[in-house]
Specification:
This protein is of the alpha/beta class and 282 residues long. It has a single domain, classed as Rossmann fold (3-Layer(aba) Sandwich). 31% of the residues lie in helices and 24% in strands. The protein is built from ten helices and eleven strands. The longest helix is centred in the N-terminal third of the chain and has 16 residues, at 4-19. The protein is globular.
Length: 282
């Protein structure tokens, strides 16, 4: 069983390498959203199609997502948006297209190479209201009650302490604020060989927890109106599974009730209520 620090080191090392690659290079590795390390074909496993979305920037798209959280995030003009695990900046730039010049977008990423790449992309686009901060999602470099909206794309599952992560999301959101997060969850039990493989940690699978547990953590963190906005089954081809499992184990996995899903989850931070004999505010 890996410690939290060992997992973070694995993820940071893998994503530092990815930050220096092109999307095409990432798409041909087992660490990106697509994988062909196990055969000649390229299999699109998790990523949704971004092209045509306002604010999309191909240089900032490394093909590492598993959803389109900004499309469900109800971002308004003037909002302050935080993107967790912001990578090269793609979701931040899409969020900026929604919040406009009157708003602000803050990207948080624990990988220095990713932050540097995102800053270069923002400078090329001449975006002055998008900033990128080096930091840990479990201890964000953001003051409390800052954000109207939090988004994240296929990152929270990589965080070892998910309870702490959602507690931090609750802290940085304003009262009445909300999040829309795309992430990977599982049903049933993944084989131990997958769970113990470092490359699959960086590939967004082995860090995943069961969907019911994921939703429970969100509710226990104080959020309300928790809603699954989108859910899709992720089919991992046998050619990839065979990197980790024997033929017999692949067959057993395919015949089991275990599955890997991408979900986009929405939830709101409660507004406080303060009442006395003369007034009642919500």
């Amino acid at each position: 069983m890996r410690t939290s620090e060992e997992i973070k080191t694995i993820v940071k090392d893998q994503y530092s390498k990815i930050a220096l690659q092109s999307k095409d290079q990432n798409s041909s590795s087992c660490c990106g959203a697509t994988a062909s390390c196990c055969g000649d074909d390229v299999y699109s496993i998790m990523a949704d199609e971004y092209k045509g979305i306002k604010g999309y920037n191909s240089e900032a798209d490394l093909g590492l997502g598993c959803g389109l959280p900004t499309q469900f995030a109800k971002i308004k003009k003037g909002d302050v948006v935080i993107d967790l695990g912001s990578g090269a900046g793609n979701d931040c730039f899409i969020a900026r297209a929604e919040t406009g010049e009157s708003g602000k977008v803050i990207g948080v990423d624990m990988t220095e190479a990713m932050v540097n790449r995102a800053r270069i992309n923002a400078e090329k686009l001449n975006f002055h209201n998008v900033e990128f901060r080096l930091g840990d999602i479990e201890s964000m470099p953001v003051t409390a009650n800052t954000a109207d909206v939090v988004v994240s794309n296929c990152v929270l599952n990589l965080v070892p302490d998910k309870k702490k992560a959602f507690s931090e999301i609750h802290r940085v959101l304003k009262e009445g604020g909300h999040f829309s997060i795309s992430d990977v969850v599982i049903s049933g039990n993944l084989p131990d060989k997958i769970l113990q493989t470092a490359e699959m940690y960086a590939g967004c699978v082995a860090g995943a927890i069961k969907k019911d547990d994921y939703i429970s953590i969100i509710k226990e963190s104080g959020f309300e109106n928790v809603t699954i906005q989108k859910e899709k089954l992720i089919t991992v081809p046998d050619e990839i599974l065979s990197n980790y499992l024997s033929k017999e184990e692949v067959a057993q996995f395919n015949e089991s009730n275990s599955g890997i899903f991408s979900i986009t989850v929405y939830a709101e931070k409660k507004k406080s209520q303060c009442c006395d004999k003369d007034t009642c505010c919500k």
